[in-house]
């Protein structure tokens, strides 16, 4: 079997017989990867992304991006790259003779993993991940009966909690339809979704810096790898494209949102890029085109804010076009090495393309003018505190629940437990779940927090706090 034939395995865990079926087989006119995209699009956690922070928490400006709009943009860029590869260079998918399968499946798979890549992220962006990690590190002794220094690999799932691993768990375990297979996506889509192909025991700052799955889903990952020809430490080649699209989207669009919020102007961005990236060809090319449009807009009678907005829109077009071209060209050139697992790009594709400095300097601009702005830091701090206190309160209902002990049996404990998602509680209480009780309790807590939107978390916090204070 050729490499790409198994990498694009259309089989599903629920129906393994499909992995041996004809790859062009359709279901209601759709190919299997197209069905994957539809399943992701219609899933409840996808809708919740509309009320989860991308960069600017709780922003009242509807034009500022949320996790949902960011994910849709990543998905759109990924699909466009997939279309170019499938139509312009079908020969890179050696071993698959069905051109229709390539032209429909590759773009659909990339669109699906682009849409779903942030689904497991908790409220308040990356600050939410940090808050969950902080809580478990602070309460390590109480939850696991060990110190941080004594923590084994399974405990590190929570001390190093990561939204990527939570995304994989959400899709394969928590999104219950009628069985234990989650959304039952194809092996190919699930394999390409795993951004970091290691567990928490194999992370390494010089290699894969994060873990892509939890101990609880390790058997599922091994099954996926066995059916796609992958293994520990080896990424699916299409994962690199999804990661590149994420880099493109947030480096460019976060700059656009920073300007839209009035924290900087187009001129600030242009001056920053010229100051720190003056000798870079990609930056010069993009800036030259964008600045020309900026001068044209200044002559049209638009307000300063409108000029900024229009100039940033054109900058976005030119910057994305530049970076997409770099990714397409690199992938075409290095497909064989990526497919054979011979090339390990631990920092992704973008840093080894001609667009590297443009993307890098944009991210630095985003941090300086956007992420580190006082208003953003203040809201992130509030979000961090909301998450930590809500975890304190949920813990009362979770700890001891399986054994009917501790405060879980108090009126507050019973009430707070009832406020956790029914499907999450079903997985937690499942008799076939043989993981240690402390691990299961910690996982239900992180599942609960990760599944909340920004506004729901705040509302639940405010609802429970008076009851919690009376309980204490």
Q: Could you give the topology of this structure?
A:
Blueprint lengths: L2 H5 L24 H11 L1 H5 L18 H22 L10 H18 L8 H14 L1 H5 L8 H7 L3 H12 L12 H7 L24 H11 L8 H24 L5 H11 L4 H18 L5 H36 L16 H16 L2 H25 L12 H8 L3 H8 L7 H14 L3 H18 L1
Helix pairs in contact: 2-5, 4-5, 4-12, 4-15, 5-10, 6-17, 10-11, 12-15, 12-16, 13-14, 13-16, 14-15, 17-18, 17-20, 17-21
Give a description of the structure.
The protein is mainly alpha-helical and 472 residues long. It contains 21 helices and no strands. Helix 4 (67-88) runs antiparallel to helix 5 (99-116), helix 4 (67-88) packs across helix 12 and helix 17 (374-398) crosses helix 18. It is globular and about 70 Å long. Mean pLDDT is 90; it is low at 17-24.
Structure summary:
This protein is mainly alpha-helical and 472 residues long.
SS summary, helix count: 21
Largest sheet: none
Q: Which structural class should the secondary elements be placed in?
A: mainly alpha
Our measurement of the CA-to-CA distance between the termini, rounded to an integer number of angstroms, reads 63 Å
Please report the total strand number as a whole number.
Answer: 0
Task: Report the radius of gyration as a whole number of Å.
Answer: 23 Å
- Measured by DSSP, the beta-strand proportion falls in under 5%
Low-confidence runs (pLDDT<50, min 5 residues)? 17-24
What's the shape?
globular
Mean pLDDT: 90
* H/E element sequence: HHHHHHHHHHHHHHHHHHHHH
Helix content: 55-70%
């Amino acid at each position: 079997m050729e490499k790409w034939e198994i990498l694009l395995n259309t089989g599903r865990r629920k129906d393994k017989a499909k992995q041996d079926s004809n790859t062009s087989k359709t279901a209601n006119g759709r190919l299997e990867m197209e069905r994957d995209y539809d399943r992701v699009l219609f899933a409840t956690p996808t809708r919740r992304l509309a009320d989860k922070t991308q960069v600017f928490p709780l922003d009242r400006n509807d034009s500022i991006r949320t996790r949902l709009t960011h994910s849709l943009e990543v998905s759109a860029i990924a699909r466009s790259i997939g279309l170019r590869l499938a139509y312009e260079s079908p020969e890179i998918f050696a071993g698959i003779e069905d051109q229709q399968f390539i032209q429909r499946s590759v773009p659909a798979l990339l669109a699906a993993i682009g849409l779903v890549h942030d689904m497991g992220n908790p409220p308040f962006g990356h600050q939410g991940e940090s808050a969950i990690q902080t809580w478990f590190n602070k309460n390590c002794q109480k939850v696991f009966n060990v110190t941080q220094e004594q923590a084994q690999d399974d405990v590190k799932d929570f001390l190093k909690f990561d939204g990527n691993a939570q995304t994989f768990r959400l899709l394969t375990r928590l999104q219950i339809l009628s069985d234990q297979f989650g959304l039952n996506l194809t092996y190919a889509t699930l394999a390409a979704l795993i951004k970091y192909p290691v567990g928490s025991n194999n992370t390494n700052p010089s290699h894969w810096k994060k873990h892509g799955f939890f101990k609880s889903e390790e058997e599922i990952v091994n099954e996926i790898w066995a059916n796609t020809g992958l293994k520990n430490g080896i990424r699916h080649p299409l994962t690199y494209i999804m990661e590149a699209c994420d880099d493109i989207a947030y480096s460019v669009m976060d700059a656009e949102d920073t300007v839209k919020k009035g924290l900087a102007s187009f001129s600030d961005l242009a001056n920053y890029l010229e100051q720190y990236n003056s000798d870079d060809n990609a930056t010069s090319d993009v800036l030259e085109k964008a600045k020309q449009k900026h001068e044209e807009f200044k002559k049209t009678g638009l307000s300063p804010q409108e000029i900024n907005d229009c100039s940033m829109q054109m900058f976005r077009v030119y910057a994305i076009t530049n970076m997409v071209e770099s990714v397409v060209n690199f992938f075409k050139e290095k497909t064989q090495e990526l497919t054979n697992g011979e090339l390990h790009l631990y920092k992704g594709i973008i840093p080894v393309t001609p667009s590297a400095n443009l993307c890098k300097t944009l991210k630095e601009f985003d941090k300086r003018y956007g992420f580190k702005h006082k208003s953003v830091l203040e809201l992130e701090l509030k979000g961090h505190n909301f998450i930590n206190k809500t975890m304190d309160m949920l813990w009362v209902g979770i700890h001891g629940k399986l054994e009917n002990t501790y405060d879980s049996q108090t009126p507050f404990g019973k009430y707070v437990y009832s406020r956790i998602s029914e499907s999450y509680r079903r997985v937690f209480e499942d008799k076939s779940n043989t993981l240690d009780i402390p691990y299961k309790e910690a996982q239900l807590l992180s599942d609960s927090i990760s599944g909340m939107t920004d506004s729901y978390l705040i509302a639940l916090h405010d609802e429970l706090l008076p009851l919690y204070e009376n309980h204490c």
